[in-house]
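TEACHING EXERCISE
Course module: macromolecular assemblies
Task: Read the component lines below, then compare them to the predicted structure of the full complex.
Student: A.B.
Group: 4
Components provided:
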Amino acid sequence: MVTTQAAENLTALLAAARAVPDPEIPVLTLGDLGVIRDVRAAGDGAVEVDITPTYTGCPATAVIASDVQAALQRAGADQVRVQIVLSPPWTTDWMSESGRSKLRGFGIAPPEPAAHAAGPVRLAFSVRCPHCGSIDTREISRFGSTPCKSLWTCRSCTEPFDSFKAI
Amino acid sequence: MTGVRTLPPLVGYALALGDDALILAQRLGEWVSYAPQMEEDIALANIGLDLLGQARTLLSYAGAVEGAGRDEDDLAYLRDDRDFRNVQLVEIPNGDFAVTMARQLIFSAYQYELYTALLDSGDPTLAGLAGKAVKEVDYHRDHATQWVLRLGDGTELSRARMQAGLDQVWPYVDELFDPADAAGLAGVAADPAALRPAWERYVTRVLDEATLRRPEPRWRSRGGRSGLHTEHLGHLLAEMQHLHRSHPGASW
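Instructor-supplied answer key:
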C-alpha cells in the first residue's frame, strides 16, 4: 500500500510541476511547453525533478527551476532537487496541442514541425498570422524578444507578431 | 604567474571550447544598442546568449572534471588572460558590422561542424551539449550567411566593406583547426583538422554565391589555445570581470 501511495504522490507532484506557468510566456504551462522531463523519489526521501531548457542560454531556466521547487513544496514535498538535463535536446515538437492553441490565442504563431527546419534543404514555410489568420506574412528577423521566437509582420492586417521557432 | 597551466586534456578541451563561446558572447554583447538595426541588436544579443549558455555548461564541466572546486564563475571571472584558451578569432575587436559578420560566418560554420562531430563523442556531457547546441548554431550560421550574401552581392560599397571584413578576419581561421587541441582525447574530442573539409565546402559556397573573393592572408594567428593572446583580450576581460572582482559573490 505504501508503494501505491508513493506512486500517487509522484503523479500528483508531476501534475503540480506541469501546471507551473512559464515565466516568459505565462499563458503556457511548463507541461504545455514539454520541459518537465521526470519527477521521481530519490533514495534519501527527496523528490528529484529533471527539467530541460528550451535553449542552453535561456535566462528563464533559473526562474523555472525555482518556481518548480516552490510548487512541489506547496504540493507537500519536503525536500526537492531540480536538475537541468540537456539530453535528449528539447524540441518544439514536444509542445502540446493545447499549448499550441493557447499560443495562437496569445498572439504568438505556434511552431511548425521541427522536421521542416532540419532538412538538408531549408524550406521557408509561411507562418499564419495569429491575429487575422492570413498566410501573407513576412519574417522581419530570425531572432525575437526571447531566444525561442522570431519576429514577423502580417501584410494583410499589418500587425507585427512573434512566431515560436521550430527547433 | 606566467605560462599556461598544464591541465588534464579533458579539462583543457572543455575550457578551450567554453572560452571560445564565452569571449565571443561578450564581444557580441558589445553590439547591443549599436547595431545598424534594432532587429540586429536583438539578433546579436540572442546569439551571444546561446553562446553564453554553451559556455556555462562547458566551464561548469571543466571545473567538475578538474575537481579543484572551481565553478563556472571562478573560471569566467577569476582567471587572467594567460589562462584563457580561446582562439584569437573570438577576441579581436568587433570592427564594423561586416567584420563582425565575417567572423560570425567563420565561427558559426566551424561550431556547426564541431557540435555535429561531438554528437558521437564518448563523453555524455559533451554529446548532450552538442545535441542541444547544434540546433542553436544552425540559426547562427544561417543568420551570418544571409548577411554575407546580402552585403557581398549588394552595392559596390557593401561588397567592398564585406570583402574588407573577410580580409581582416581570415588570418585567424587556421587556428580553429589545429589538431593539437584534441591530443590525448580520441573518442571524446572532435579532431579539429577533420572538421575543416565540411567547413570549407560550406564557406566556399557562401563566398561564391556572395561574389566574394576568398582571402589569401600572408600571416596566421597562433597560440590562443596555449594562453597567448592579442592585447585586446586583457581589455575585454577587464570589462567582463571587474564587477565580480570588485564585489565577490555579488548576485541579483
